[in-house]
Amino acid sequence: MAKPGLDGHDRGARIIARAYRDAGFEVVYSGLHQTPEEIVQAAIQEDVDMIGLSSLAGAHMYLFPRVVELLKEKNANDIVVCGGGIFPEEDIPQLKKAGIKEIFTPGTPLTEVVKWVEEHVEPRSS
Amino acid sequence: MSITDKIVAGDIRAVARLIRDIDDMVPEAREVLKDLYPFTGRAYVVGITGAPGVGKSTLVDQMVTHLRKAEKTVGVLAVDPTSPFSGGAILGDRVRMQRHSMDEGVFIRSMATRGYFGGLTQSTKSAIDVLDAMGKDYILVETVGVGQDEIDIVRSADTTLIVLIPGMGDDIQALKAGILEVGDIFVINKADREGADRTVSDIRLMIEMDEKRYENGWKPPILTAQAVFDKGIREILDEVEKHATYLRSSTERQSGIKYEKVRSELSEMIKDKIVRDVLSDLIQSEEFEDAVQLVLQRKLDPYTACDNIVSKKLKPGNK
Ligand SMILES: Nc1nc2c(ncn2[C@@H]2O[C@H](COP(=O)(O)OP(=O)(O)O)[C@@H](O)[C@H]2O)c(=O)[nH]1
Ligand SMILES: [Mg+2]
Predict the structure, then answer these.
(1) I need a surface site. Which of A20, A85, A93, B195 has the fewest CB within 10 A?
(2) Into how many domains does chain B fold?
(3) Whose Cα sits closest to atom 26 in ligand 1?
(4) What long-range pairs does A34-39 form, CB within 8 A, spacing at least 24?
(5) Predicted structure pTM score
(6) Mutation test of the interface with chain A: which of B73, B95, B101, B136, choosing the one with the most A Cβ atoms within 10 A?
């Protein structure tokens, strides 16, 4: 769970992280103000199955696709990338085209967010 | 290139995957660990333990910065507790260490304690071996100093730091049980707060009361620090260095310590494997369930139930 960009609020990200924990996931929380490079490096060191990006700052059209691109460069595009935050409706198809597997907008119930991962993310080592 | 070669060459993805496989108890990981063993034994392992929120991750972050300035490579293992209710965990130590994520000389890995019987100690030790084999000079292991498992982890470190904060008066009493003995260096962090001197003298008193144990050896220094302001870190690393020198200073002592370490690690490992191989099968067996029922209905006492199962299952040649 990472928070790229400049805005200083991670309440949303923390709430989501807790929901995943309560559903039995191990969540590496890597904090605020991260660059896509840092996020990808952390994801690789932690060997995660999925990266959840949270952003409110509006730079998601650059930051989210950049994470996907870097994963490709590092041959780590088996890691699923999802995003959450407040976005204009019309950005969503573009983000999906850029390789973001799913976008969660405010108001999506936490149970949905958790269920999506349970249904769409295969743990690699089993 | 074999996995072993990749790891020795420092391949980040191979290292990350192997640690995950270790954690998930993938059988092949054990074979890789066997191959890696000749490449281990070079890193210096420092354990950092203490209650949640005392500033361990912040301290680790600063130590990494100082070690990097001295051109040492560093591996970090940050262990956080698994939720006993869901089996999930939030591993948040990385937040404090973000600035090192782009540094190729630093590898940071979070681990959850998970729930399995004693498995934590084993998987953390194996992860230390992996970082050691990948060539890290220092390995810093952060654990929340509560359970026996955590104490066992730091016991396997070369030097163990116990981190406290001012005003932990009663907690210090509780510390006596177990964790005090494993402390090689005491750090009173958040010394910008009131009461640091008092905590220092409390700890000193406790160490002095245990005079006998420190008679011919290492007497744990007590340092103050303000991790968040990068104060006192140099001094901590100096003491780590001194402790390393102390360990090396007498070949007799060194081989004694090594002997004890190998002995306890090997017996732990055997216990772990027996527990894993035998017990996990056993508690899923019909016999076990029958025994549970008998005890539940009070038709059998648990002592006899236990003896019956053990004598049947653990007879040589049986499995
Ligand atoms: N006042 C003060 N706060 C500190 C100091 N060191 C760390 N902290 C703060 O203590 C909190 C917990 O730190 P963290 O490193 O996550 O603790 P951990 O749970 O032991 O790993 C953070 O908000 C840090 O900024 C210090 O020396 N003084
Ligand atoms: Mg921590």
Answers:
(1) A93
(2) 1
(3) B190
(4) A34/A2, A34/A3, A34/A4, A34/B98, A35/A4, A36/A4, A36/A63, A36/A66, A36/A67, A36/A70, A37/A70, A37/B102, A38/B98, A38/B101, A38/B102, A39/A2, A39/A4, A39/A67
(5) 0.91
(6) B101
